[in-house]
Automatic annotation (TrEMBL), chains A, B:
GO biological process, one term: polyphosphate metabolic process
Transferase as UniProt keyword: yes
Listed transmembrane segments: none
Residues covered by the Polyphosphate kinase-2-related domain: 11-232, 265-486
Gene Ontology molecular-function annotations: polyphosphate:AMP phosphotransferase activity
Keywords, alphabetical: Transferase
Pfam family name, one: PPK2
EC number: 2.7.4.-
Keyword Transferase: yes
SUPFAM superfamilies: P-loop containing nucleoside triphosphate hydrolases (SSF52540)
Full protein name: Polyphosphate:AMP phosphotransferase
Length: 488, 488
């Protein structure tokens, strides 16, 4: 795998000059063509032996291409806010829009390479980490983010020589870091680790390219060729089958059909119980333990099922300064230029905070499915993508609770008519609401399938009978309080 | 001013009940009406005596209104990234979109109130700080952000009683902070300071409202009434004359007309000089002193004047990991929902970093003026707003340099034709470019006025003759290097 790179091949000045002129024109051309299409983002992951000239090469790439449409994203160790979110959060946050190019230093491969290059690497950890990366990259690829991964490589001898040459000149000495000087001693281990990583994570839709880096002409030319190849690749990548394939034979449970819609609470019991639950919620949210956790509440349900009212009863018990409520409606242009989960990644609460979503990422398998906004393959894949997303949230310390507030068609109709009559609610009822009502069965089928496929222990669905608003509000509070008291 | 509040008026339970029902309906109604219009943001600034029940009241407001469209923005002391930007940066960053409401705790008044409540307040500092706040609020008001400021007040005795009562109950003790306990001792000084602040910063478009806070019913009702009044206020506020009025008699200098467009450099001199300047730039950007500064470069100029090429020559000398290039085109929907400077505030570099703007906030007084996208009053006001913005940038440690690359009409025409013929540049020429060319004189007049009104010592304009690309690139580099070497 590294044989060619470790032979330290060189490219003569003349050969390079000829190549350079051609590559520059081609790169610019390909970059502008992608800008015009604006249907894909290109992420260039930069990795490799320290001191192989990664930084210098990327500078050159910025010079050859139009740097106004390239974002260089450089990451060090996770710090501050980042520690309170899943490790991939920073990469989601900074994801460039379609049409543009991102160059990633300190990517999601850094911890994996470090682990693989240890004296006694943990094979299980490497396996699990590689699988998580593959899920991430597969999802990005499926959602229009193309990935190419460059591994800059050279022989141990050439690495040493290069560092010494750069150090000798005050104009280039800054390019050499203390880490570069240590590489030589551990060269064999790093190479062995790299081999494991590349083997585990090379795939058609996010390939690794080894760049021979001893000679700067060769390094520049091969980098440019790799990027050019990626820029020119058109069409949808051939993806592996959904990364956590859900069995198509799973029986979809008709949870909505089996629900007891007559559940009720009378007013007096309601007032008493509400106060008690809100008191418990207030204490849980202000407990010391919650400072290292976060709470994510997802509210879904039919139109007029009472999501807003339930949310208000929850926030009443909270210090509103620790709450972010995100109402989800049609995506903005910025959001449309990224994978569908991007807008939600942006809103993940930090520790000690509560994020409430009034509708959510489940729109993917509800409205987008029923209204046929996306082809079936995309929403079928989404169950696994969403499970993966929520698993990362839970692993980072979030309690994730999901509520479906369920009403019967008759009750909804009654509420629609009430809204039409109410002087301050009639604007809440739109032609869309009536149209959605016509597709009651399709929405119910989608909701049932969603609850079957995404009801997981670390992010459970609570199906709540909401024909009686009081009952629904108490149920929601009870589930939240129970989960917090048990898990904190 | 505080006489009524310090009388600690109360509202009986019955009076409150009747009022509450009416206020809740009216608040929701007014909130939804604004959401529908989506033409203004409402910011509610929350300030006042510590321990007056601000937090509890805002929670109530969230419960009475639809909390999904209210963002509660709570700030403590500036920290981390915030210290590397102007003090107002955090408020710009989090500004909610039009149609929604933001409630601000720890607002831009906090440092001013602290200063004013000191034993020996610095009158000049208070004067200057108040003026800066007025400029900020006036600008927001002019751009569709309505502001109402609530000062929660009560007598010293009532403040003490309230804290003791809350502390006595474990369910409410969390509401009392150590600061609340200290207020009583310094009550007179805080009141005197508040009086100064309110006097200096009360104005028709961003009024202060004193909320009597000893009694929770009174406090809730008066807060709700104040917010309701603000929500219902329609139309454009009556603004004071532009806050830093520029003299209409200032003679606009025809800098573009007087420029020597024949300036040239031959190829050999260019290569030598380019290398030298890039070396100096490389050293300056990597110097220790630059770690506490940032660099903001603005590029403007006629179409095809060579902005992209000049930017590339600059970035060549930089570690691309420390650079953010922001190309400015038509605003997105998220950007249109905020004042025009918002999108630029979001892109201010942190210390040690370089932000390059390919076109910029000057679009306000160029394209938006010439294409009549906004009424004249708005772009006339923009000169002062922009000067204020850049002054804040400079004060926070940024070097701000602005370049106008100037070509003659003939040279532009030649380049347009070249672009049309070039296989990889022809997409760069659009019908817009030809239309802009027809308005050459209007653009030149706008550019001349812009350079006259916004050429300030802390953010100078450099007008660069760009008929010869080599000459222009060297000039740009020279100005940057000179500024960095002198100021670092």
């Amino acid at each position: 795998m590294f044989a060619e790179a470790e032979a330290d091949p060189i490219l003569s000045k003349d050969e390079f000059k000829a190549l350079e002129a051609r590559l520059r024109v081609a790169l610019l051309n390909a970059q502008y063509e992608r800008l015009r299409q604006a249907d894909k983002t290109l992420l260039i992951v930069v990795a490799g032996i320290d001191g192989a000239g990664k930084g210098a090469t990327i500078n050159l790439l910025n010079e050859w291409m139009d740097p106004r449409h390239i974002r260089t994203l450089a990451y060090g160790p996770r710090e501050g806010d980042e520690l309170e979110r899943p490790p991939l959060w920073r990469y989601w946050r900074d994801l460039p829009p379609k049409g543009s190019t991102g160059i990633v230093f300190g990517s999601w491969y850094t911890p994996l390479v470090i682990e693989a290059a240890r004296k006694k690497p943990n094979a299980d950890a490497i396996e699990a980490h590689s699988a998580a990366i593959m899920r991430f990259e597969t999802m990005l690829a499926a959602e229009g983010v193309q990935i190419i991964k460059l591994w800059f490589h050279l022989s141990a001898k050439a690495q040493k020589t290069r560092a010494q040459r750069l150090l000798a000149n005050p104009d280039t000495a800054w390019q050499v870091s203390p880490v570069d000087m240590k590489v030589n001693k551990r060269f064999d281990r790093i190479r062995a680790g790299a081999q494991v990583v590349l083997n585990h994570t090379d795939c058609g839709h996010a390939p690794w390219v080894v760049i021979p880096s001893a000679d700067e002409n060769m390094r520049a030319a091969r980098t440019a060729e790799a990027v050019l190849g990626a820029l020119r690749r058109r069409g949808v990548p051939r993806l592996p089958p959904a990364f956590v394939a859900h069995s198509s034979t799973t029986r979809i449970v008709d949870r909505l059909g089996k629900l007891d819609y007559d559940a009720k609470v009378d007013k007096e019991d309601y007032e008493t119980e509400l106060g008690l639950l809100q008191g418990r919620l207030a204490r849980a949210a202000r407990s010391d333990k919650f400072r290292n956790r976060s709470l994510i509440l997802v509210f879904e349900g039919q139109d007029a099922a009472g999501k807003g009212g339930a949310i208000r009863r929850v926030t009443h018990a909270l210090d509103i300064r620790q709450v972010d409520i995100t109402p989800i409606s049609a995506p903005t242009t910025e959001e449309l230029a990224r994978p569908y989960l991007w807008r939600f990644w942006r809103c993940i609460p930090s520790h000690g905070r509560i994020g409430i979503f009034d509708r959510s990422w489940y729109g993917r398998v509800l409205v987008e499915r029923v209204e046929k906004l996306i082809p079936p393959a995309r929403w079928r894949r989404a169950y696994a993508e969403i499970n993966d997303f929520e698993e990362q949230l839970a692993a980072s310390g979030a309690l994730v609770l999901k509520f479906w507030l369920a009403v019967t068609p008759d009750e909804q109709l009654k509420r629609f008519h009430e809204r039409e009559k109410s002087p301050f609610k009639n604007f809440k009822i739109t032609p869309d609401d009536w149209r959605n009502r016509d597709k009651w069965k399709e929405y119910a089928a989608a909701a049932n399938e969603m609850m079957t496929r995404t009801d997981v222990a670390h992010a459970p669905w609570h199906l709540v009978s909401a024909n009686d608003k009081r009952y629904a509000r108490l149920q929601v509070l009870r589930h939240i309080v129970d989960a917090m008291e048990i898990q904190l």
